[in-house]
Design brief:
By secondary structure, this protein is of the alpha+beta class. It is about 40% helix and about 10% strand. Helix 34 packs antiparallel against helix 35, helix 36 packs antiparallel against helix 37 and helix 36 packs antiparallel against helix 41.
Length: about 1550
């Protein structure tokens, strides 16, 4: 790497550029760079320098997050109060400010207000005194809520006057849907496709989103509301025009005909002395021409014309501080148009604010031509953008040195770091374009390694060393340098004393440039020979022996950093023969700069080497390795540390095209954890061999320490007394010699690195394959694949080994989507390397032609230059040109053919990734063999190379050229930069995730709100981690029943994902699906369908239809669409689930049930029975016959059978009577569909563990026995006395009865009961419900009876099962009422009976221990009315039960029942004693509660909640219109691990609650009048 040690330091710039320029609201990017800011040292010391330290031209608007400040934030940080604003020619208004704001922050927030914009250069005054811009509002004396602040117009400077012009132009520029595309950035499509803006002044974020009343032009509107044809399953069409808005907004309204710099500009010398800054010419809509002068006081008309220069003020011309005020006076049309403009709806900040880092879009506008003139250039604003040289290093280090004592200080520091790095990255992007365009001359004379200085940036390609692998090694060194800088930048605490330079790498037009901020000035000049100490070099191989306080301080910091990074202290032999102790790689240098800070340079070898690709192992020298493998030790490993037969099985180790293969930091952490597990096992085994730990733990016994030492030696710990893993980064580095005294340490390090390298093959890759088998949210494209692999520490050079692992897997067919992505990634990355070399031989004038030619060769195997020439000639003839060919000469790049390109790709893939499959047949082989889409291939290549294509539909299957030169809109730089962490927000987010794992949703909700608030304070939510936080916050809010909050937060999450990650990023697809579920829960069905259409459109374009997540999308679409439209999607989902997960998987079983449910809604009961039988078989194999899941599926199958028998009988009767008869269909309710979508999408996940179920059943049985024994000791006389008192209350207080509308009267005496309903839910039990000694007969036993009914029985059953129309609509059946739903089962009693739903106290609830989440699941399965006569009650039993189950209103409030007492509810069963007996519900202490063991999760899922549904949808057939779980009633304690638990258990196979066995779902009566759990 190129060190800047000898680079002369530029002159320090006392006014650094506005690093917030790319991060502000409502400001033009170019103009914001011109406004000066105070230095960060000034921010730290809060000292005003030179008057106003900051020009008020820049609108640094602190976004007031719409999320309420959580409780976790300190009280002083939650101070907000209103103040009155007046003055400066604006109407008085009120604004909310925060006490922690600086005065300048309040001013910037004011300038973003509609009442003030576009005024600038303002200050605030209180009681006639101008306020210090750097003072905090809460420290100002006399400022209190309701105080009046006055805006004061400050004089302009030449710079601030230009900034004001930029603000005016930005206001006049109407934003359109393609503005982001024109800039090459990823747009937000959600608002354009689905929403319209409405102004809402009361909204906290200034915006209200509502559904559009009509479809936009960008999405075809079908008259029947069905999906577009290209979204139907099996459609091969992939239209790009549907991805982005291709129709422009209405014409931009005209405000002025023209505004530009006057021909008399710049002012002459004598006018400058009189204060003239600029001369501007304006042509109004009325056709009049005016010349305007800019001066310190503002703007006024002068007397100049096109022929005469007369700068004197025009007659009756006043000076206006704001330019728009002057334009109001001279043009009534301008005033009218601007008034209309200001009344337009405001966009939310998350859609307006520029993102910190620009996310490029591979698709551009459909029309590449410029649609408007560049008014900024005409006003001379562009020239100022690069006029000021920045000291990026000083800016970054000053931001890092900001105080961190309080939360507010840390937030300000994080925000400053993010803004500095954001502006640095944008400057690097501009610098790369400027350098590659040839506008910057190199500062050295080396054509092989030119270096450039531009705008405070040091940019170079780096030296191509043959030892490192030439060009490949140079690129790897630049990438690894960035990784090393990131590692040291992430160190916290005292280690922040080690500084690194701002660094980024940029790939542009085939060249990779490394950009760094200039190192601080060092003593000595370039080319002069001086001692290392004189140059500031304190550490490194070439530093030499030194002794100073600064060196000792630096070495102490390096020792601490080595421990944090798991690097070993070691020594190497320097070229002069001396031993040099090192804490880093041999290339690193530590120096002290002129600013007194310690800097580390050349960190590209910070991470240890990858022993799998060491260059010292010859490619074809396998004899030594095979001999070593033959000498196996008893432990199963060979001497060098490789596993048995490692080289034979994997072909590793081997050489690589470059010599800088390093391990990833994620792999080191996983490997250390793996070794720690081995260490623990070794200690345990050795302790057991010598008698156990207790025997060896006595004082003075040396066996325990010896055991630890032996275990440390076995696992390779660098310490022999404690477990400690460290790695030497210089092992396997060519040309490095170690002292002989460290030979044993070197051997140990070589062994550890070999084990770590083998760990990738033996553990990490199989772990990745297993993850892909079990999850349906696996990667969908190259970016998500890279992310998942890197999370496991797998470098992308192992892609070929991933292919081998999948090929050797027995589940190869189920992993075909991963194979498809890995193969496509290998091809695209190999093609990119060829493209980089390809572009370097192309002249600038032919770049678009060369890029389109290369893409045609990539997508069309037999493409040749002749085809391109013929196509160009045809287009030229149509344009009327005489010459058809653009290039008359044949250049090397133009002679490339598709066959040649794919031959090179095959060679590159084999050399880099060890990919042995033949690729010579081109893209056709990828399509046929792996199912790779050409569209996906094109997208991945454009994203990796920075190519932006014109938005149109491309037909890639044709043999002619699919892409032409006009389709290449631009080639953008691809920048890799440092990630600045947002520490406090990330910690809060991590704490929230842990709370969710523990099931503490209340706590998680608060912490998520805190995290979202902190993200908003630092980055305005425009950050990837903020997007994940918002998404999780919406999910938790949804689980808690807060649908409005979930919807609003998820809307923001979608927009942030589109703008920060990309409009077609895999996370954006997932966010659209979640949004669809939330808005469907709110009743917005059309909007939910549009979101799912959008998600499926993106999924088809990014990957294709053959993916597990497509099954999730299709399940949701099948549930949401009505009529025949949903069937194809459900069938496609079932096909995908079977192919990816097998017929016995839980997801497949659920898909079988959903399809069965849809067929029931169509009246096809025979097919429905077949699918439900498959679902039942899957549940039985997964959970057994006695599991509630299996029972529910069995009862559902019974219901279908009953309905099929009835339908068949009705059809036979209709045929005999020669009349028409309509088959009654089972239609799911909306709440049912919502619950099923929640389960399908993974918003709520259920867990099942057989061991835990057994443990729970034993404990519950023990509790039941104890409760029964305790109940038998109750005094009968006391029970009789209470019974007599209860009878007196019954006549007055019994209010619960079954009404005609099936809505039980709710007890509103206590709101807290509803809030705590979940905590009082009973734990499910597997045994049948017993009420007063009568057991409900299992439904399965009645199925055979029903199928063999006699004629008289059929007549009886007809009477019992006939469901009237009123009952379908939710009215109760007149013959029976639901009595008991304790363990998810229900009995029906005769009319007039009521039962008591037992409550479980908080002491009875299961507690959690050791981080395991417990979930209670109440399935709510209805045991419907009697199917045979065995379940009917005698008259005397009914009378007795009626007395026992009568529940008074006082009992609802927690008082004991007077007629009968509940005896046992622990295992989900309820038993009632007769009058005169008194039983007691036992309380379970914490010692008796279930504890968590070995990571088992028990879910408490409310599956059969309700219930009184006031909308009349309580009743129905098979529970489809039965009571569903109301999300608003779910307590935080319910969902527990709903979000993160790994394996789903759907309560009855459908996520439903109540199943009526006989096909008639009776109404439910809740015992206490409240919705039960």
């Amino acid at each position: 790497m190129n060190s800047q040690t000898d680079t002369p330091s530029p002159t320090n710039n006392l006014q650094p550029p506005d690093y917030k320029s790319s991060f502000h609201c409502g400001e033009n990017k170019e103009t914001e760079k011109d406004s000066p800011l105070e230095t960060l040292a000034d921010m730290k010391d809060k000292v005003k320098k030179g008057g106003a330290a900051r020009s008020q031209g820049t609108s640094d608007v602190p976004v007031i997050c719409s999320i309420k400040v959580p409780v976790g934030i300190k009280q002083e940080e939650d101070t907000s109060f209103p103040v009155k604003i007046q003055g400066a020619g604006v109407e008085p208004f009120e604004m909310q400010v925060h006490g922690f704001w600086l005065v300048q922050d309040a001013v910037m927030a004011l300038m973003a207000k509609e009442e003030v914009c576009p005024r600038s250069n303002l200050s605030l005054a209180l009681s006639g005194m101008t306020l210090d811009p750097l003072a905090e509002l809460q420290t100002l004396k006399g400022l209190k809520p309701g105080s009046s602040l006055r805006l004061v117009e400050e004089p302009y400077s030449p710079r601030s006057a230009r900034v004001h012009l930029g603000r005016v132009l930005e206001l006049l520029r109407a934003t359109g849907p393609q503005d982001a595309l024109k800039d090459g950035c990823s747009p937000s499509v959600l608002d354009t496709l689905t929403y319209t803006h409405t102004a809402e002044s009361g909204s906290s974020n200034g915006k209200s989103l509502k559904r559009s009343s009509s479809n936009t032009k960008t999405e075809p509107a079908n008259q029947d509301g069905g999906p577009p044809e290209h979204l139907l399953p099996g459609s091969p069409e992939r239209p790009l025009m549907a991805l982005l808005p291709h129709s422009s907004q209405p014409e931009v309204p005209s405000y002025l005909r023209d505004m530009s710099l006057s021909c008399w500009n710049p002012p002459p010398g004598h006018r400058k002395l009189q204060g003239d800054f600029l001369y501007i010419t304006v042509v109004t809509l009325e056709g009049r021409r005016y010349d305007i002068t800019s001066c310190p006081k503002g703007f006024y008309l002068n007397r100049s014309t096109e022929e005469v220069f007369d700068p004197r003020p025009a007659q009756s011309s006043s000076v206006c501080h704001c330019l728009t005020d002057l334009l109001y006076l001279i043009s009534p049309s301008f005033k009218q148009a601007l008034t209309t403009l200001k009344t337009r709806p405001q966009q939310p900040p998350v859609e307006v604010l520029p993102t910190p880092y620009r996310t490029r879009s591979w698709l551009g506008p459909s029309c590449a031509s410029r649609t408007h003139r560049n008014a900024f250039s005409r006003l001379g604003l562009d020239e100022q953008a690069t006029s000021q040289v920045s000291d990026w290093n000083e800016e970054l280090q000053a931001a890092r040195d900001l105080p961190q004592g309080s939360l507010e200080e840390r937030l300000q520091r994080d925000k400053a770091l993010l803004q500095v790095n954001s502006a640095f990255v944008w400057s690097v992007t501009q610098g790369a374009e400027t350098v590659m365009d040839g506008f910057v001359e190199p500062i050295n004379g080396n054509p092989e390694d030119p270096a450039f200085l531009w705008s405070g940036l040091f940019m170079s390609q780096g030296a191509a060393s043959a030892a490192l692998g030439g060009e490949r090694g140079r690129r790897a060194a630049q990438r690894l340098e960035l990784t090393g800088v990131q590692l040291y930048s992430n160190l916290e605490g005292g280690l922040q004393g080690l500084h690194t330079l701002p660094t980024a790498t940029v790939d542009y037009r085939g060249v990779r440039l490394s950009a760094q901020g200039l190192a601080p000035g060092l003593e000595g000049q370039e080319g002069q020979e001086s001692a290392p100490a004189a140059r500031g070099l304190l550490y490194g191989v070439n530093a030499g022996p030194q002794e100073s306080a600064q060196r000792r301080q630096l070495l102490a910091l390096l020792a601490q950093s080595a421990k944090a990074l798991s690097l070993q202290r070691h020594a190497v032999v320097a070229p002069n023969g001396h031993q040099v102790p090192l804490f880093t790689s041999v290339d690193a240098q530590g120096l002290v700069g002129a600013d007194g800070r310690f800097y580390l340079l050349d960190l590209f070898r910070t991470l240890p080497a990858d022993a799998n690709y060491c260059t010292d192992v010859p490619r074809d020298d396998e004899q030594l390795l095979q001999e070593a493998e033959a000498e196996q030790s008893s432990s199963g490993t060979i001497e060098e540390g490789w596993p048995v037969n490692y080289h034979t099985d994997t072909g590793l180790p081997k050489s690589f095209p470059h010599g800088l293969c390093r391990l990833r930091p994620e792999l080191l952490q996983d490997f250390i954890q793996h070794k720690h597990s081995q260490f623990t096992e070794r200690v345990k085994e050795r302790m057991e061999e010598i008698g156990g730990f207790e025997e060896c733990a006595t004082a003075g016994d040396s066996r325990a320490p010896n055991t630890v030492r032996a275990a440390c030696k076995d696992v390779g710990s660098v310490s022999d007394i404690i477990f400690e893993m460290r790695f030497n980064p210089n092992i396997f580095t060519p040309g490095i010699s170690f002292p002989s005294a460290e030979s044993s340490s070197v051997e140990l390090q070589e062994r550890l690195l070999r084990e770590a390298a083998a760990f990738v093959i033996t553990h990490q890759i199989p772990s990745f394959v297993e993850y892909c088998l079990q999850s349906n949210e696996v990667p969908v494209d190259g970016a998500s694949l890279k992310q998942v692999l890197h999370q496991r520490g797998i470098n992308l050079r192992y892609l070929g080994h991933v292919v081998k692992a999948i090929s050797q897997s027995e589940h190869k067919e189920r992993l075909r989507h991963i194979m498809r992505m890995v193969t496509g990634e290998i091809v695209v990355r190999s093609a990119r390397r060829i493209f980089n070399s390809f572009l370097q031989g192309v002249e600038v004038s032919s770049l678009s032609t060369a890029a389109s030619h290369f893409l045609c060769c990539l997508l069309v195997h037999h493409f040749s230059p002749t085809m391109q020439g013929e196509e160009t000639k045809k287009k030229s003839r149509r344009r009327g040109r005489a010459q058809g060919s653009v290039t008359t000469e044949s250049t090397p790049w133009s002679m490339l053919t598709g066959v040649e390109l794919w031959t090179m790709i095959e060679q590159e893939a084999a050399e880099t990734y060890d990919f042995t499959d033949s690729l010579t047949s081109g893209p056709t082989h990828l399509v046929e063999q792996y199912g790779v889409q050409k569209m996906s291939l094109l997208r991945e290549f454009c994203l990796k190379t920075g190519i932006q294509l014109r938005l149109r539909d491309y037909f890639l299957d044709q043999s002619k050229a699919p892409i032409g030169p006009d389709d290449i809109i631009n080639i953008f730089p691809v920048v890799k930069h440092l990630d600045m962490p947002i520490v406090d927000a990330s910690k809060a987010f991590g704490a929230a995730q842990k709370s969710i794992q523990k099931g503490l949703l209340d706590q998680a909700h608060e912490r998520l709100k805190e995290s979202a608030y902190l993200f908003g304070r630092v980055c305005d939510d425009l950050h990837p981690e903020a997007c994940y936080c918002l998404s999780l916050l919406a999910k938790v809010a949804f689980l808690q029943g807060q649908l409005a909050e979930a919807r609003s937060v998820q809307l923001k999450a979608v927009v942030v994902s589109e703008r920060v990650l990309g409009f077609d990023h895999s996370n954006t697809i997932h966010q659209y699906v979640l949004l669809a579920v939330y808005v469907y829960g709110g009743g917005e069905n059309t909007l939910a369908q549009k979101c799912l259409y959008r998600a499926r459109q993106l999924m088809l374009t990014v990957h294709g239809e053959d993916h597990p997540y497509t099954a999730t999308l299709d399940c949701c679409l099948g549930l949401m669409l009505t009529g025949e439209q949903g069937g194809p999607f459900l069938q496609n989902a079932l096909k995908l689930n079977i192919s990816f997960f097998g017929p016995a998987d839980l997801r497949t079983a659920l898909s079988q049930h959903l399809l069965s449910q849809w067929m029931c809604s169509k009246g096809d009961y025979r097919s429905a029975m077949n699918h439900e039988k498959e679902a039942l078989a899957a549940f039985t194999s997964l959970f057994g016959e006695d599991h509630p899941q299996t029972r529910c599926s069995s009862e559902f199958l019974c219901t279908i059978t009953q309905q099929a028998v009835r339908a068949e009988r009705c059809l036979r009767q209709a045929a005999a009577d020669q009349t028409e008869h309509t088959i009654e269909c089972l239609t799911p309710a909306t709440d049912t569909i919502l619950e099923q979508m929640v389960l399908v999408t993974g918003i709520r996940k259920n867990a099942q563990n057989d061991r835990l179920q057994e443990f729970k059943q034993k404990l519950l049985a023990q509790r039941a026995a104890e409760a029964t024994e305790e109940a038998n000791k109750v005094n009968d006389e006391r029970a009789n006395a209470e019974t007599e008192k209860g009878e007196e209350k019954i006549s007055d207080n019994v209010t619960i009865s079954v009404k005609d509308d099936a809505s039980p009267v709710k007890d509103n005496s206590s709101d807290s009961q509803a809030d705590q309903s979940v905590e009082k839910a009973a734990v499910e039990g597997s045994d049948p419900v017993t009420v007063n000694g009568h057991a409900v007969e299992p439904v399965e036993q009645t199925l055979d009876k029903e199928n063999t009914l006699t004629e008289s029985e059929e007549q009886t059953l007809d009477k019992e099962n006939t469901l009237t129309e009123s009952e379908d609509n939710g009215n109760p059946a007149s013959q029976a009422e639901l009595t008991e739903t304790v363990n998810g089962e229900a009995e029906f009693r005769s009319t007039g009976e009521e039962t008591q739903t037992p409550k479980v106290n908080e002491e009875d609830s299961l507690t959690e221990n050791e981080g395991i989440a417990i979930e209670v699941m109440i399935n709510g399965v209805d045991k419907s009315d009697t199917l045979d006569k065995e379940n009917t009650l005698t008259e005397s039993e009914e009378q007795t039960l009626d007395k026992e189950n009568t529940l008074t209103e006082s009992e609802d409030n927690g008082n004991p029942a007077s007629q009968a007492e509940l005896t046992e509810t622990v295992n989900g069963e309820a038993e009632f004693r007769s009058t005169g007996e008194e039983t007691q519900t036992p309380k379970v202490n914490e010692e008796d509660s279930l504890t968590e063991n070995e990571g088992i999760a028990i879910e408490v899922m409310i599956n059969g909640v309700d219930k009184s549904d006031t909308e009349g949808a309580n009743n129905g057939i098979n529970g489809y219109l039965d009571i569903t779980a109301e999300l608003s009633e779910l307590d935080n304690q319910v969902a527990l691990a709903d979000i993160v638990l790994p394996k789903a258990i759907i309560g009855n196979g459908i996520g439903e609650k109540d199943i009526a066995v006989n096909g008639v779902a009776e109404t439910t009566v809740t015992a206490n009048g409240l919705a039960e759990e």
